[in-house]
Amino acid sequence: MTAKTKSSPLFLGIDTGGTYTDAVLWSEAGGPSGKVLAKAKALTTRHDLAVGISSAVDAVLQKSGTDPAAIKLVSMSTTLATNALVEGQGGRVALVMIGFSEGDLARDGLKAALGTDPVVFCPGGHDVHGNAAKLDLSGLEAALPELGASVSGFAVCAYFATRNPAHELAARDLIREKTGLPVTASHELSAKLGGPRRALTTLLNARLISMIDRLVAATEGFLVARKIAAPLMVVRGDGALVSAAFARQRPIETILSGPAASLVGARHMTGLDNAVVSDIGGTTTDVAVLDKGRPRLDPEGATVGGFRTMVEAVAMRTFGLGGDSEVALEDGALNPKILLGPRRLVPLALAGMMHGEVVAAELERQLRAPNPGRMDGRLAIRTGVPERLAAGLTGAEAKLYEMIGAVPLAVDRLLTSNAQNATLNRLVSRGLVHVAGFTPSDAAHVLGKQANWDAATARLGAELFARKRDGRGQSIAASPEAISERVLTTLTRLSAEVILETAFAEDGLDGAATVAHALVQRAVDAHPGIARLSVALDRPVIGLGASAPLHYAGLPPLIGNGCVVPEDTDVANALGAVVGQVRVSAEARVSQPKEGLFRVASGETVRDFNDEAAAIAAAETDVRAIAAGRARDAGTDSAEIEIASEFRVSTVEGQRMFIEAHVVAVASGRPRIAV
């Protein structure tokens, strides 16, 4: 490395994905877009995230010959939170609902998100003007000894807490005093009305805390070990950067972090202002639209894993489709289709590389059987997460969990009934167990299009899958190569479908998925029918992800436009992580509970004024101070603050009547770097 490069501040970008951890070393020197000095990949090690992080970063340091002391900023994006929600994973948490009824669980998908996790209802809450009902936390206090021993955190949501958070604060303080566990209060995450959806967002945040905490701790520990004394930043779902401490408290805001970083990276690498960006990873495909150089934001909040949250994020559609997606067969059809996802499996090629003869021996045993088995090609293995995260298992779950260890165990040896299969799936959902099986990554290894893992094990898995029977009792494929070709063709076709579905949805069309499926089917069908249909995007696709060159090569005829795959597409997320800005906001509301009284709700305070102008001025002062404080906490010392106010008024007999005002401050700036 030259002395000139050493004299320029260096930036380290890290992206921790479901399968790979990427690292990139970038310098502002080297032209308008800076320069990528080195990049590397390593397997994400979920049992100890520091292992994968250190492997990737050490490789970058070695390739570039960089002195770690020259690194002045470290920024990280991650798909771990996104993947956890798509796969239904996360810690067991308790939801505390203050002022709500059990019927409220049926709204906004809250009951489905809660699953079997416990919920406690307490009297209390406030009205729309912040006036309090009587609070009673005795039921919560009585339940805390048992809950404290069986959950990893708490989510607290009170009725109209955005207008007065006092009851949430009281419950939060009680829980922290009695249990010492992490607590998320809904007013900390969103200032929007809509209690059940705010409760859903809070629940998901609490569920993700332990996962993001482990990621940040692993990264910080590695940086200390390598003597990299630089601030650590994390990419939020809207593409902005925040400090690691900020992200630890609000991990829900890192959903779509990786995809948001990829959008920033895509724009940076290609210079395209208008494009559809499709980022294919191991677990998911994330599709979004670039308009005039900026990603579209979702005004209603990010939707991930079927849940509509209140998190402001890029208008990204996330699909359970990736290189490590589960390959399955359509049930009951004469000519069954290949199905992919949404669940991620550990590819057999990867399991074979890590566990050698153990995996191969089990697959060869199954191949020797005269008939294919329903559970052929499947193995179970512990993820290696801390034992405390296994709290709250049922008897059946605990018994099965004890049988599964650090060495893969064939599922046909493990399970004796269909009920146990459901139990195994629950352990997978809790993030305690991985299932290894046949994936598109294995198909790519069989065909020689991927070679980073064990191709021999992948071929065994393909042989087992090819033996599966169609509705006539015949094998579905003649060879491992034939089934592998079908799997990769299916992945490209489904990629086109999700890209078109996103485009149709952005255009406001109903039934986007159905239309996209029909159009792609016609495009690939040799007999298109009497009605000729065609479709073309108005902008190119930017293909991101290490496997994009493979899976997106056949996209153009299916989408009617070109597909650009940048040179550094394999580390787009990590690159996007270091070229972004800190951006935070603060909100206040001014209401009029009665004529002549103006109530300001900002942050955790509620104040009354007798004059509208004084109330608005106080709200603006409050949000400016809150935004400045959040900007400092988020990692910038040079924030510029913009304030916007929106008024709701009516006119009665020619007189202006004040109803409500919404005051928002946005602070933005480049992150602070080490000196």
Write the layout of secondary structure elements.
Blueprint: H1 3-7, E1 10-16, E2 20-27, E3 35-43, H2 49-64, E4 71-78, H3 80-86, E5 93-98, H4 110-114, E6 119-122, H5 138-148, E7 153-158, H6 166-179, E8 183-185, H7 195-225, E9 232-235, E10 241-243, H8 244-249, H9 257-270, E11 275-280, E12 285-291, E13 294-295, E14 303-304, E15 307-308, E16 317-319, E17 325-329, E18 338-344, E19 346-347, H10 348-355, H11 357-368, E20 379-382, H12 395-403, E21 409-410, H13 411-414, H14 418-429, E22 433-437, H15 440-446, H16 455-466, H17 480-506, H18 512-524, E23 541-544, H19 548-551, H20 556-559, E24 563-564, H21 572-578, E25 582-594, E26 597-602, E27 605-609, H22 612-634, E28 640-652, E29 655-669
Parallel strand pairs: 1-4, 4-9, 5-6, 5-7, 7-8, 11-23, 19-22, 23-24
Antiparallel strand pairs: 1-2, 2-3, 9-10, 11-12, 12-13, 12-16, 14-15, 17-18, 20-21, 20-22, 25-26, 25-29, 26-27, 28-29
Helix pairs in contact: 2-7, 3-7, 5-6, 9-21, 10-11, 10-16, 11-16, 12-14, 15-16, 15-17, 16-17, 17-18
> What portion of residues is helical?
25-40%
Q: What is the gyration radius calculated from CA atoms? A: 26 Å
Strand order of the largest sheet: 3-2-1-4-9-10
Low-confidence stretches: 1-6
Structural class: alpha/beta
Shape: globular
First-residue to last-residue Cα separation: 21 Å
The major sheet is characterized as: 6 strands, mixed
Number of strands: 29
Query: How large is the count of helical segments?
Result: 22
Strand content: 15-25%
Average pLDDT taken over every residue: 87
Jot down its keywords.
alpha/beta; single chain; 675 residues; 22 helices; disordered N terminus
